[in-house]
Design brief:
This protein has 15 helices and 24 strands. The protein is α/β, with parallel strands linked by helices. It is globular, with a radius of gyration of 23 Å.
Length: 471
Amino acid sequence: MEAHIFFGSTEIQRPCTLETKNPYSGSVVSRYPECTVDDVHEALKIAEKAKKTMRESTLSQRITWLEDVARKVEDNVEELAQIITDEVGKTIHFSRIEAQRCAETIRLSIHAAVELSGETFNSDAMPSGRKSLSFYQRVPAGVVAAITPFNFPLNLVTHKIAPALAAGNSVVLKPAPEAPLTSYRFIKYFIDSPHAIPDAISLIYGDAEVGTALVQSPIPRVISFTGSATVGKQIMQNAGIKKVALELGGNAATYIDKSADLADAAQKCAMGSFYNAGQVCISLQRIYVHNDVSSSFQQLLAEETARLKVGDPYDPDTFMGPLINEETAKRAESWVKSAVAEGAEILCGGNREGRYFYPTIMANVTDSMNIVCEEVFAPIVSLVSVDNFDEALSRINNSPYGLQYSIFANDLSLARRAIDEFECGGVVVNDIPTVRFDIQPYGGTKQSGIGKEGPRHALEEFTEIKSVVIF
């Protein structure tokens, strides 16, 4: 029930004055202490000292530690899943998957660290050069500050913590205020492990003031943040000369060509639009459909959406639970009402009950409506009929975001054009843009951020190149 601070290996138990409430029941599910700027400085001071210990540790030591944590996660999947559902309202089925993915992400980080290496270069390649033994190696960046969101409160923490530690860094984590207990239980596995490297990881809580202090401090060498573009811009302004990796969300879109398997596309699009109540940065938000199949696809999508069970997140058969809070549900409701006032049509859904906003399909939308041009982060998807792929391409790319897009088509030439011409960090063919594998390089272009997640690629973010020349 209570989540405490970790200053390195020391657990600090203070009065837990802040609380989180279950989005489904409204009951208090966790309490945690309110951290201060002084707490940030203390955690960073410990991390600064620990970076030497981490740098001197062997990869074998770090692997043993991470493997031990992965096993603990596997042994406690049900408990972790229950906490995730308690804190953020994710359905228990998907919470279990997230906990299982956490262990997988740790192991992927181990494998990536084993494969991490430098290479030699030829210093005498030009007339001005000289023969030498020349190579570069990757070394730990030092201290990593990790800031994570609520929608994947366990696995997105893992995507930062596991690669950072595997690379030999010390870490200070500030998780989302909505899910303190999830992070506490996970970090406690690291701290309590008999293979733990002392003081390598700290856990603090807080909102803007704490986050700003963490980012502005000269101690972290890397800031790794997942969240909104607005906060990402503030981090860029405050960070100073540091490595910054930002995963800032998007406005995911797909194109349904007349050559596509419409039934398959409709089933997948319903999943991608309403999974986790739309609270996913690659949640499908815009569907552009070829005119020739628009009516058929619309009917199929509505039928698939009607089959989705909305309700009790603890029921294993429930597909979609509540939004994180009532304010978010009210915002979704107001955006739909605004679109309707501008001429849009609700094909299904559009109704709110407390924290629940039911799966909503919109039509007759324009590119200027919030539900189309902004990141909705709610279970709302818009259908747009287009004459051809060229029109869809233009409208899909007409966004300040560029995280992931997709295309459904059994026309290879269109699939190849989508791969080449979509302006985004990831392209999916014949599935939803909501597809993400933990092993893949994940991150966007434009306002969707900079840098990549995925253990192998995160290791590059969390290390620096040291060049060596020997005569």
